[in-house]
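One-letter codes give the sequence; the fold follows as C-alpha cells. Both lines appear below.
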Amino acid sequence: MGTRPVAVALIAAITPVLAASPLPLDTVGRTDPDMAALAASVRDKPLPERLGAITQAWLGVPYLDGPLGEAGGFDDDPVTRYDAFDCLTFVEEALALALGNDPVDVARVRRGLRYRDGGPATYENRRHFMLAEWIPGTVDDGWLVDATPSFPEAVALSHTVTDQTWAQWSRRSLFSLGDARLPTGTLTFSHLPLTAFAADPTLVERIPDGAVVFTLRVVAPHLPIAITHVGLTVPAVVPTVRHATKIGAPMVKDHKLAWYIDNLGNYTNWPAAGLIILVPQEYGPRR
C-alpha cells in the first residue's frame, strides 16, 4: 500500500451477529424488528439524535470481543446482533441503523462499512485494520468525513508499516490472514493531541455530537497498529462519549468526554496520544 493522507491510525478490529445460518447479507431478518422499529421512529430526526436514540437502547449491553462474523465460512459468528458488542461493532451497528432507511438498507450500509471496496462479505475482505482499511475505506466511500484536520489544534503524524513490522508483532497470530493480505506502507494522518485538550478545556466542546471518536496511542515503529478504541459522541447536557468499553464493568456505557480524555492520560504501558474525529454523512432522502 502506498502513501496516502488519512485521518486515522491502524487497529485490528475483529468483527462478528445474530443468525447462525449463511443467509444473504441483505436479508431483512438480519435486523431485529424492535431495533428496526426504533430506527424508523426517529428517522426524521437529525443524525446525531438518531444515533443517540438508537444506542440508548444498548446501554448496559455486555462487551464481547469479536461478536460478529459472516455467519458461515471461516468466522461463523452472526452477521449482526444486539445482545453484545465490541467497540467497533457497536459503532458499525449504530451507523447502519441510523443511516439505513429500512431493514434491507441497514444491511447494505453495514456491508459498505465493514467490507473493502464493495467486495464479498468474507473474513479476508473485512476491514480489520482501522488506519489502513476501515477509516480510509469508509472515508473514500463517502460514509464519513475526516474532521480532525479542521481543528486548528490538529497535529499531523505518519506511520510506516513493513512486512517485518507484522512478522515481529506478538499479536500477529490473532489474524488468520496471509502475509500478502496485511497492509504495509506509510500513512499520514492528523490527530488532536491530549496536550491540546489540557491547554484548552473548551476544545472538547467543539467535537460535534454524532462523531466517531478514535483513541490513538503513541505511534511506535515496532507496532503495526496505533488505534485501540472507538466510540460515538451523543447529544447530552455535557459532551458525552457512548461506547462498548472495558472500563469498569465491560459493557456499553456513557462517559463524560472530558473525563474520558483525562483518563487517557493515565495510560502508562502504551501511552495515549490523542483523538481522531470522523463525522458520518447523510446520504439520499430519509424516506
